[in-house]
Write a structure and sequence with these properties.
25 strands, mainly beta, about 425 residues
Length: about 425
């Protein structure tokens, strides 16, 4: 079927051109120096006609106006999808989003763009975003990226193999001084689920959070990445995560890392080999003088596997993250064939925090273990002068137990170096 559609709305031109096995729609326009570019590609079988599974419902396309906003109607179809949108202003702030799906049973999506009114003013923003639902695709990929006028960047990325993505939304927002990207969804299922908000500023501070599940489900997930000249931050949280271990994998993997221009590093890491997590959130923040990372878990279960957690703070002396000369404070915990569960007056079953500066590293954690075949909590601190502090506790929990650990190193000018570790038994229930 050969056909074409031309819409002229405000200063926008929307053109559809025929392809051998599909069609492509391009949108471009300008308003006071701002620009919006869009490209949408639909792929249909070579011998296919437009059907009830490949429907274009344009509705009323809102062009650039005093509100400086472009909003699309809801599109729907099946098969392959590629959708790209970008907005940029005179100050150099740029926001980009794109979405793709391969061989999907069905998909629907809409998008929006704000090219910014009053181009050149430092308090004005550019923004683009998409809302998508995709069922039963061979692969799904989404990316939101924002650059501000100062060279700071924020990204959120999503990938799914052999799965579905329901109620997905992402956006990129940029101004002269900030870059921000956000992602959220109601349900993701698949043979592989991966999400990674990451951020870096021009000064060299960076932060990253990551969720990776080789086979499973993530419900009610959200993540964000924010960059400015002085601070970078990533966050992610999920209401429920379930995963199974596969060959050469660790099952559920969740982590957050913050690094700064002074070569300080803070890191948290959670593994569940075969099991689930309810109520998860993490955060990583870096400034010139400090890094922080934290993680909270309400409940976790590994009836047929294990739960392993780690947290550390480091300062590298050779100005390289590959260097082996650093101060480190570390905490770790482990539960085999068991669970972490909430107790009265406890907000989380597991909490950990790490921080690092050139003069101090610190790692803290608290674990509420309900049951298991074996459990352990350990703390470790080591500085470049070979001062070492270690503490550990291993037990077979036949009832609920609460332990905490602390580790720290100090290297303050005029004060003696020190490395201190401790594991504390808080109580049983």
């Amino acid at each position: 079927m050969l056909w074409g559609i031309v819409f002229l709305v405000s200063t926008f031109l929307i053109v559809s051109t025929p392809l051998v096995n599909g069609f492509s729609i391009s949108i471009s326009g300008a308003n006071g120096g701002s620009a919006v570019d869009s490209e949408i590609t639909y792929k249909i079988g070579i011998n296919s006609e437009l059907s009830d599974k490949t429907i274009l419902t344009f509705g009323n396309v809102v062009g650039l106006s005093k509100a400086s906003k472009l909003t699309s109607p809801l599109f729907g179809g099946s098969g392959d999808l590629y959708d790209y949108h970008s907005a940029q202003n005179k100050e150099g702030a740029c926001a980009t989003v794109w979405m793709s799906a391969k061989n999907a049973n069905s998909w629907t999506y809409s998008y929006w763009a704000i090219p910014s009114e009053g181009v050149g003013l430092s308090d004005k923003k550019v923004e683009v975003g998409q809302k998508v639902t995709i069922y039963d695709a061979d692969s799904i990929h989404g990316h939101a990226s924002a650059y501000n006028s100062e060279g700071d960047r924020a990204d959120t990325c999503t990938s799914i193999d052999q799965g579905s993505l329901v109620g997905y939304s992402h956006s990129a927002i940029a101004t002269k001084t900030s870059a921000e990207s956000k992602t959220s969804w109601e349900l993701a299922t698949g043979e592989g689920i991966w999400s990674c908000p990451n951020v870096q500023n021009k000064e060299g501070d960076s932060a990253l959070s990551r969720a990776e599940i080789p086979h499973g489900t993530i419900k009610k997930y959200s993540s964000s990445a924010l960059a400015t000249k002085t601070t970078v931050n990533t966050k992610q949280n999920a209401a429920y995560i379930e995963g199974t271990e596969k060959s050469n994998t660790l099952g559920i993997l969740l982590e957050s890392t913050a690094r700064n221009q002074e070569f300080d590093e803070a890191h948290t890491e959670v593994h569940v080999s075969t099991g689930s997590i309810s109520g998860y959130d993490d955060s990583a923040t870096a400034t010139k003088s400090k890094t922080d990372a934290s993680v909270n878990i309400k409940t976790a279960s590994a009836k047929n596997g294990y739960i392993s957690n780690m947290v550390w703070g480091r300062h590298y002396y050779e100005k390289s993250y590959d260097s082996l000369i650093y101060d480190e404070s570390r905490g770790s915990s482990y539960v085999s064939l068991g669970s972490l569960d909430l107790r009265p007056r406890r907000t989380y079953a597991y909490q950990a925090k790490a921080s690092a500066t050139p003069w101090l590293t610190r790692a803290l954690q608290t674990q509420v273990c309900q049951k298991g075949s074996q459990a352990s909590v350990s703390a470790y601190a080591f500085n470049y002068n070979f001062d070492l502090g270690m503490a550990a506790q291993t037990w077979r929990p036949n009832k609920g137990t609460i332990y905490s650990s602390t580790a720290s190193t100090s290297n303050s000018p005029g004060a003696p170096d020190a490395s201190v570790s401790a594991v504390k038994y808080i109580g049983a229930y």
